[in-house]
Amino acid sequence: MKITTRSLAHLVMVLCLFLYSIAQWKLRTKLKKTGYFVKNQVEKPVQNPTMRWIFFLFRGGAEVEIVIEAAVETKVANMKDELWQILDLMGEECRKYYI
């Protein structure tokens, strides 16, 4: 079987959609299990947000490097408590990228 660029792109797209749906399922399950809520676009608390909305919430986070003399310290800026809560629910694998 010859794998073309087009068929490879389709496989990558299917894999991305699969991972996206797993992340959404995991977050929704954890929200229901813990009783936590996430505010949606109209500030209404929901337990079934889409990953698209969650990614939108994370758009403001930024990595900042603080240089004091010879020491460089890296911090994450613009992270609200709600975002840290979402990271806690998603697990250590996701949180480690923000610490």
List keywords for this structure.
single chain; 99 residues; alpha+beta; two-stranded antiparallel ribbon; flat
List the helices and strands and how they pair.
Layout: H1 5-34, E1 38-39, E2 45-46, H2 51-57, E3 62-68, E4 71-77, H3 81-90, H4 92-95
Antiparallel strand pairs: 1-2, 3-4
3D structure, described in words:
There is one protein chain. With 99 residues, the protein is α+β, with helices and mostly antiparallel strands. The chain has one domain (5-95). It has helices at 5-34, 51-57, 81-90, 92-95; strands at residues 38-39, 45-46, 62-68, 71-77. The strands form 2 sheets. It has a two-stranded antiparallel sheet with strand order 1-2. It starts with a helix and ends with a helix.
Tell me the number of structural domains. Answer: 1
Number of helices: 4
Helix fraction by DSSP (H/I, runs of at least 4) = 40-55%
Beta-strand percentage?
15-25%
Beta-strand segment tally: 4
**Cα end-to-end separation:** 44 Å
What spatial form do the alpha-carbon principal axes imply?
flat
Report the radius of gyration as a whole number of Å. Answer: 18 Å
- Cross-sheet strand order for the largest sheet: 1-2
Q: What structural class do you assign from the helix and strand content?
A: alpha+beta
SSE pattern, N- to C-terminal? HEEHEEHH
Mean pLDDT: 90
